[in-house]
């Protein structure tokens, strides 16, 4: 089951067991930065949802038959209210927006990318896990070049950082990536950033591959979310062995 409840729609989420056959499912555990336990809804075709405790930031992945999803999302929306934010395969979300007047598109589409095959750590660049000094250098890199990233050193849920250092200047960090919000069955890649002067050398792809290889071996699967129009990043993640599905989100129409 997918477990996005409790986190913003663009925050990485855990999907360790594939998609449910029908209806909508929100997992029991939050994997995003806000923490908390979520409320889950599921249908086996009976139209009677199962429920768990209320999330702090209601949201959930929708999957399955369009008719089942329409009926169940209407019920969830009526109970949770306008803060409910479903997301899932772009085609299904489009059908929900067309079929439920209270919903509208919730932003541009994005890719859920994942792999269950270790790509190997690679040899194109010297990648390794960062120590405390390296994480301080990564913090400076984000502060200058990627301040809007959810995943940054020292933030909740971000477990480890990997990086590539300049071979001619070992103290200079060129690219980083994180193991963030990982959980049983799925490790999440986040916070990939490359110093502007080092771009075009494949370092972002190299450090991503290094982290993905470790995540698959540790959790059984690695995944991430990336904006659909970020073609360079998608190609880098594909070089790390990941493949994607086009996702979209919906949000309640303001009243």
Task: Give a description of the structure.
Helix 4 (203-219) packs across helix 5. This protein has 255 residues and is of the alpha+beta class. Strands 1, 2, 3, 4, 5, 6, 7, 8, 9, 10 and 11 form an eleven-stranded mixed beta sheet that branches. Helix content is 25%, strand content 26%.
Q: Estimate the global geometry from the Cα principal axes.
A: elongated
Structural class: alpha+beta
Q: Which strand-content bin applies to the residues?
A: 25-35%
The overall pLDDT, averaged over residues, is 79
User: What's the end-to-end separation, in Å?
Assistant: 32 Å
* Count of extended strands: 11
Number of helices: 5
Sum up the structure in keywords.
255 residues, alpha+beta, eleven-stranded mixed β-sheet, 5 helices, 26% strand, elongated
Question: Secondary-structure map with pairings?
Answer:
Layout: E1 24-25, E2 60-62, H1 66-80, E3 86-89, H2 90-99, E4 103-105, E5 110-115, E6 127-129, H3 132-145, E7 158-166, E8 169-180, E9 187-194, H4 203-219, E10 222-227, H5 231-239, E11 243-252
Parallel strand pairs: 2-3, 9-10
Antiparallel strand pairs: 1-2, 3-11, 4-11, 5-10, 5-11, 6-7, 7-8, 8-9
Helix pairs in contact: 1-2, 4-5
């Amino acid at each position: 089951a997918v477990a996005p409840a409790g986190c913003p729609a663009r925050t990485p989420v855990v999907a360790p067991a594939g998609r449910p056959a029908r209806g909508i499912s929100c997992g029991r555990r939050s994997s995003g930065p806000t923490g908390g336990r979520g409320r889950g809804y599921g249908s086996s075709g009976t139209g009677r949802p199962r429920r768990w405790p209320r999330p702090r930031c209601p949201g959930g992945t929708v999957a399955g038959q369009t008719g089942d999803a329409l009926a169940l999302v209407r019920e969830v929306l009526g109970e949770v209210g306008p803060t409910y934010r479903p997301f899932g395969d772009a085609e299904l979300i489009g059908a929900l927006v067309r079929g439920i007047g209270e919903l509208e598109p919730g932003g541009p589409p994005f890719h859920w990318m994942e792999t269950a095959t270790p790509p190997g750590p690679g040899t194109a660049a010297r990648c390794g896990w960062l120590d405390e000094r390296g994480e301080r250098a990564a913090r400076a890199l984000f502060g200058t070049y990627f301040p809007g990233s959810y995943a940054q050193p020292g933030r909740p849920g971000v477990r480890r950082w990997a990086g590539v250092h300049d071979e001619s200047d070992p103290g200079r960090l060129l690219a980083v990536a994180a193991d963030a919000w990982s959980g049983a069955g799925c490790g999440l890649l986040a916070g990939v950033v490359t110093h502007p002067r080092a771009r075009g050398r494949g370092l972002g792809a190299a450090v991503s591959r290094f982290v993905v290889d470790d995540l698959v071996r540790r959790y059984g699967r690695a995944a991430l979310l990336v904006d659909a129009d970020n073609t360079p990043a998608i190609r880098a993640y594909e070089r790390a062995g990941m493949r994607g599905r086009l996702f979209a989100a919906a949000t309640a129409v303001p009243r």
